[in-house]
Amino acid sequence: MSAEDFEGIKQLAKANHATRVAKTPQRLKYAIEELARNGITHKVCNETTGQINCYLNGTTLTFYARTGKIQGYENQRGIKAFIRICRAESEKK
């Protein structure tokens, strides 16, 4: 791979990252709407990363709207999966 190829790939990666980051406010808004619609109390901890925490039964559950990742649940992603996890946690006693 030539230096020019590498630079082209590097610039493409930066552009893709910038596009993803630019979508964070819309993703955060959607996540907040979905949590409210499902009656799940939450706190936005970091608008830049889209970090949302839910505090249920002494447990903190963390969702990142930018990436859709759920902390501690590596095989599950997205707000709908996060809502399912929150419901399951709230049903525990």
Supply database-style keywords.
51% helix; 19% strand; alpha+beta; 4-stranded antiparallel sheet; 93 residues; elongated
Strand and helix layout:
Layout (H helix, E strand, L loop, with lengths): L2 H20 L1 H14 L5 E4 L4 E6 L2 E6 L4 E2 L8 H13 L2
Antiparallel strand pairs: 1-2, 2-3, 3-4
Strand content: 15-25%
Element string (H = helix, E = strand): HHEEEEH
Describe the largest sheet. Answer: 4 strands, antiparallel
State Rg: 17 Å
How far from one another are the termini?
57 Å
What is the overall number of helices? 3
Poorly predicted runs are none
Helix and strand content put the structural class at: alpha+beta
Bulk shape: elongated
Tell me the total number of β-strands.
4
Round the mean pLDDT to the nearest integer and report it: 91
Lateral arrangement of strands in the main beta sheet: 1-2-3-4
Helix content: 40-55%
Task: Explain what the structure shows.
By secondary structure, the chain is of the alpha+beta class. 51% of the residues lie in helices and 19% in strands. The protein is built from 3 helices and 4 strands; from the N terminus they run ααββββα. It has helices spanning 3-22, 24-37, 79-91, and strands at residues 43-46, 51-56, 59-64, 69-70. The chain has a 4-stranded antiparallel β-sheet, covered by helices on one side. The longest helix is centred in the first third of the chain and has 20 residues, at 3-22. The radius of gyration is 17 Å and the shape is elongated. 15% of the residues are buried.
